[in-house]
Specification:
Length: about 260
Amino acid sequence: MNPSDGLNALVLAGRRPGGDALATHAGVSHKALIELGGRTMIERVVAALAAVPQVRRIVISIDQPEVLAPLAGLRAPECAKPVTTMPARASPSASVAAALEHEGTPLLVTTADHALLAPEWLHAFLDACPPQADVAAALARKDAVLSHAPGTQRTYLRFADGEFSGCNLFCFQHPAAAGVVSLWQDLEAHRKSPLRMMLRLGAGTALRYRLGRLRLQDALSRLQGLTGANVQIVEMADGRAAIDVDKPADLELVRALVANS
């Protein structure tokens, strides 16, 4: 991505259908309101985004925007960028689809539970996004993650050329990115049927992945064939970029990392 280009940022902060167990565990209505080091997770994420010159405006996708009203970190003078809200849809992919329709591209997307998000990671990600990519997604290698958080339990994509964890950081750079979001919605709709999900991606591709024979670039090529969009990966050097807050153990880990930073 051209560093001089401006873009808007979307933060996914809606509740899961039926509520969020971690929010209940922490005694708040929304996971985004969990405090770390004296600030809520959503304020920490917004502060990181606001520190990036390319970000013009920040949009928070949330089902109850009124819960954000008391947070000083989401408005001036603490936040130097305009912050608005939009209604969260039934799923993350649906929320991104709605944001793309309303905001257009380029659109930077992250999540409210990305509590360790740092401006330098955002700079590195945006600078490394290939300009020809319709969608760029951040991944971190397993060894980079474990070097910062030994023993942490994360979900890894196991390709023939390495194991990677997602970093909840995407840049939808061109309108063709809508094809990727459409596939994402389709996969979410069938998330309780692994067989249908595998068949949607292609039985041959799924089998090669299960056998550990699928290379990352082959997977990206398959995505392009399915969606018509050029999808590229940006590898993050700092493994902490892959650490979000999904369960109590994650919360303890992130609180420890914040305390030691």
